[in-house]
UniProtKB/TrEMBL annotation, chains A, B:
This is Tryptophan aminotransferase-related protein 2-like. Keywords: Aminotransferase, Pyridoxal phosphate, Signal, Transferase. Residues 1-20 form the signal peptide. The lineage of its organism: Eukaryota, Viridiplantae, Streptophyta, Embryophyta, Tracheophyta. The keyword Membrane does not apply. It holds the Pfam family Alliinase_C. It comes from Cicer arietinum. InterPro entries: Alliinase_C, Alliinase_N_sf, Ethylene_sulfur-biosynth, PyrdxlP-dep_Trfase, PyrdxlP-dep_Trfase_major, PyrdxlP-dep_Trfase_small. Residues 79-431 form the Alliinase C-terminal domain. Homodimer. Its cofactor is pyridoxal 5'-phosphate.
Length: 433, 433
């Protein structure tokens, strides 16, 4: 009878069976460690949801992979080298029409949004919802700040470098960030071979007495730790990249209050495809120069995405007190993913993860631990090149060298689909046992 | 009785009366010159539409200007220094729901669009409609080309400079364009002080034996003439900026067939606020490098705007054979605007306009004259600074110096609202008489 079943179907069944076995193993370990009953229900619900969603939702990706090679998902490469935040899609599906936007063909045709704003291409509705969300979450001071919108926060980093550097300087200003830094910083800074600024590498080892710009990413990408400035000298200019300073990733300890702070929709709400980021800028002249950069670079920022972003932020603020609020929902997923991941990692000796200390979160009103969007995983023992090692097990990650650090580390995204996350657990578990 | 009417109302009436008088003057002149009856009906219809729309549509701008200063629209500054294509809004309003787009909150969340394309953030639907529209219009060969989408064609110009230059070259490559060139080229090329490329000025006076990139804008911004390459040497690399190569502006004489060609929605359909442009690229490696630039610059291009752009392009292609097709509609407006403008300019000695020769348009299947999006107006006689002169009459334009040319010239946008265009005619007429 078994032999008569189509190969694809039986492989899929086998896979689900193997995963179910593994997951129950993981759950048992979590219990043993914590000795508690508290997490049992949520875990079971989560597990149930995962299995349900895996059987229902990913029919296309399943179909694709099995169509390509009859060995099925077991051989499928899982790509966790990017931080594509597809995890959030299910929440927005559940919200139904609440964040749907309708744009008629004649709307928003002009280059201009608001002639009275320093940032002339900024949609007032978007600016309003940005300020409102910061007030709801409590993660940034918005008073006395100019909002500058960008095509993702990538464009805003370049705009900030342009605004903080001087065309008359004899030497390009040095741009620093402490290791491990966001892997794209070096190429973003240097790809144009600009005479205004140049990449200077690790902020920790910077010993020259020259002007510099320090990029402070907090919580940090890749390792998730909260960060302060490192160099702390008079000639230092600062860009605070707070893409991950949201309650699902880290306790909100206070409202950030810096000169130039960057946020992005990609990591806060999961809408990476919109390419919308924003800067909160204290100095009027810096805001003007950033606006000028974006004018020369792309003559403004998509109105359609700004309007859609406004709607998405509004939906989050409107429902922030609901039982199924965006941040509660996403906090829960991150919490459960980190618990499962730690359980798998701690069941063997091959890998290790960063340890975080808890802090009081003013948003959730309780003591909480960070649960970053990326896992900064270390290969222990003899494995020198963790990225290659995991690639051999069909897990694509980004190796430590790209972040200025040892190749014993890799960064892997925890914002992917449930299916890919469970495959990750399954493979890490298989490698260790 | 008159004295009892509110000031605002009576001023508005006076203004409409004055315009009507001027327009009838203009119409009479057009007749005298052409001696024909052919244009009478369309002119009257146009005139009627303008007055109707002016009385109905611009209630807000009227209200604003009269509220601000009780002298009313007579004193209002008209801004024609940018090429904001607001003229097209009425067409898209008339199309009703045909180009409306609905985007649910969960859609297009990923960074990625199409893993199989060189340009991994290109929405397949947008690429399909780009190719289709070029086939409908006949203005570009798409076979054997890679489509690269950009945040407006500005970003694509930078992407092309990046792709065509070499990081290993000893000197930055020289970027040229023949005078008068698009006023933004020099600052777009030089604002980052890139070591890859640098602005070299007028292509006509280029005499160095070094590698170069020539920007060929055809029809040209600001003067509207069709252009060919100027330098024509072996080491030359070419970027063809065909933003205005559409039937409403110039006869489509053949399908363009270059190595690297740029188009943009801003000028073709009037959707400047979307920030969507595209490149047709012959060489696979150049397309890859352009994609890499956009990845480092903005990690892709707004999915929302790409989807909306696809819908807009589809609407145009679907209705290309209709009586009220987009290109027929916009051709007619441009034709009428140029006739009115020429009539006003030719009624005095103060100004002159470029003269164009007609050519056979394969799209409209008849011999037609160019009718550019900008008027390249020359102040005759003693007026040396045409921009200042017109500013004195509350008409904002961009002076010739910005385009590398004499200050006796100005560029003024003919893509603004009917109201502003009629005010322009009124003022130019008043200046001359």
């Amino acid at each position: 009878m078994m032999a008569n079943l189509p190969t694809v179907l039986s492989l899929r069944h086998l896979f689900v069976l193997s995963l179910a076995l593994n997951v129950s193993l993981i759950l048992r370990m979590v219990y043993d460690e914590q000795g508690g009953n508290n997490n049992k229900k949520s875990m079971e619900v989560y597990n149930h949801n995962i299995l349900k969603s895996r059987l229902v939702i990913p029919s296309t990706s399943f179909a694709n992979s099995t169509r390509k090679d009859h060995s099925g998902v077991v051989d499928r490469v899982i790509k966790l080298d990017h931080g594509d935040p597809t995890m959030y899609e299910r929440f927005w599906r559940q919200m139904g029409d609440r964040s749907t936007i309708v744009i008629p063909g004649w709307a928003s045709m002009s280059y201009f949004s608001d002639g009275s704003s320093i940032c002339w291409f900024l949609e007032p509705e978007f600016a309003k919802e940005v300020v409102r969300l910061h007030n709801v979450v409590g993660n940034a001071v918005t008073q006395g700040r100019h909002v500058v919108v960008g095509t993702g926060s990538s464009q805003l980093i370049l705009a900030a470098l342009y605004a903080l550097s001087s065309p008359d300087a004899l030497e390009p200003i040095t741009v620093l960030s402490a290791v491990p830094y966001y892997s794209s910083y070096p190429s973003m800074v240097d790809y144009q071979k600009s005479g205004l600024y140049k990449w200077g590498g690790d902020a920790e080892s910077f010993d020259k007495e020259v002007p510099y710009i320090e990029l402070v990413t907090s919580p940090n990408n890749p390792d998730g730790y909260s960060r302060q400035t490192v160099v702390n000298r008079n000639q230092g200019l600062l860009i605070h990249d707070l893409a991950y300073y949201w309650p699902q990733y880290t306790p909100i300890v206070s409202a950030s209050d810096y000169d130039l702070t960057l946020f992005t929709l990609s990591k806060s709400t999961g809408h990476a495809g919109m390419r919308i980021g924003w800067a909160l800028v204290k100095d009027r002249e810096v805001a003007k120069k950033m606006t000028k950069f974006i004018e020369l670079n792309t003559i403004g920022v998509s109105k359609d995405s700004q309007l859609r972003a406004a709607k998405v932020l509004k939906t989050i603020s409107d429902s922030s007190q609901d039982e199924e609020s965006f941040f509660k929902y996403s906090y829960k997923i991150m919490e459960q993913r980190w618990k499962l991941l730690r359980a798998v990692v701690e069941s063997g000796d091959l890998f290790s993860l960063p340890k975080f200390t808890s802090a009081f979160c003013t948003f959730f009103n309780q003591e909480l631990e960070p649960q970053p969007a990326f896992a900064w995983l270390k290969c222990e023992g003899d494995i020198e090149d963790c990225e290659s090692f995991l690639r051999g097990h069909k897990i694509l990650t980004r190796g430590g060298r790209a972040f200025g650090d040892s190749p014993k580390y890799v960064r892997l995204s925890l914002l992917d689909t449930d299916e890919n996350f469970m495959l990750l657990l399954d493979r890490l578990s298989t490698i260790q046992h």
